[in-house]
Amino acid sequence: MLKVCIVGAPPNAEIYYNILKEFADVVAVVENEYEYARKFLETYQIPVYPTPRDVLREKNYDAAVVLVPPSMRYRVLQEILSEGRHVLVEPPVTDNIETALRICNLADYQGVLLAVAYPKRFNPAIVKARELIEGGETGMPISLQSTIYTLERYPDIFDAFAPEELDVLRFISGVDIAKISVVSAQGGRVYSASIKFINDLTATMHLASQTSCAIEELLINCEAQSLLVDYRNQDLFRLSMLQSDADRELGLQPELKKYRVDIVKEDPMKLIVRNFVEALTKGVKPLTTGYESVRVMESYLAARHSANTEALVRLR
User: Fold this and answer.
1) Which of 68, 155, 204, 305 is a Cys-bridge partner for 8, taking CB atoms 3.0 to 4.6 Å apart?
2) pLDDT, tens digit, for every residue of 62-101?
3) Does the structural domain 3-116 have CATH classification 3.40.50.720?
4) Do domains 3-116 and 124-265+297-314 have the same CATH topology?
5) Taking the model in full, what pTM does it have?
6) Phi, psi (degrees; rounded to nearest 5) at 176
7) Which of 67, 52, 53, 54 shows the shortest CA–CA distance to 20?
8) How buried is residue 172: exposed, middle or buried, by Cβ count under 10 Å (0-12/13-18/19+)?
9) In this predicted model, what pLDDT tens digit does every residue of 145-174 receive, in sequence order?
């Protein structure tokens, strides 16, 4: 069985542990903060060490799940990858593009897997939508429309949601972003982005906090049949415009019909862990690599610059 070490023990380390134990053997936790370390040791009876190297001296492991803050990740990832261990890390890989690329190159040099955990990309509705598009059932996407309205207040909703949403848009389009323009309003409560991909596909992204309703949807307009993703409920709908002969003769407008697609609903975090473990044990393709995460970081920084300056930013 794959032996895994969890590096960093914030509250979500418990989530990873409870999922990992279904697929792998969690042999150790790395954590310097006393309270977190004590809780893990007492609750789960797992050895806790101050550094990944200390784990290697006493317990061998095949892969690590890295949960330390972005500002600490470069040093930690460098240490683990240099020892030839595989890594699953939460996004972003590091806190800047230069060091993130170094980490990706190091993983390549060592011949190990560097995977990145983007929960939204692993949402079963998004995965199924991509399958339908790739299978030719919907025709090619023409445009994408992302809408996120939240009841909660965020210091900046763009920072809270844009990185993962940009990753999803890239995943559905299958290509990189060519240019992006973002405008903001109401002190960072509202953002609207216009995006063009290198294949001429276009997308819009609307983000707003403290709204009267909560919506997290992605409309995928395709040549033959459009799709609507409901992130919150993991629902996927096929959209069709229906108009009977009688309605047409009366000049009535076509009616939009939604047909639910059958989906096995699962915890995206569980799917992330399963994909990572199966990539190492069964040769399954990892859904998100380090280099892809760097592309997302580039897109986000370009969008952030556009939001700050209200200028069109070209990436490709």
Assistant:
1) 68
2) 999 999 999 999 999 999 999 999 999 999 999 999 999 9
3) yes
4) no
5) 0.90
6) -80, 160
7) 67
8) buried
9) 999 999 998 888 999 999 999 999 999 999
Of 84, 83, 90, 82, nearest to 6 by C-alpha is: 90
| CATH-assigned architecture of domain 124-265+297-314 | 2-Layer Sandwich (3.30)
Domain residue ranges of the chain, discontinuous segments joined by +: 3-116, 124-265+297-314
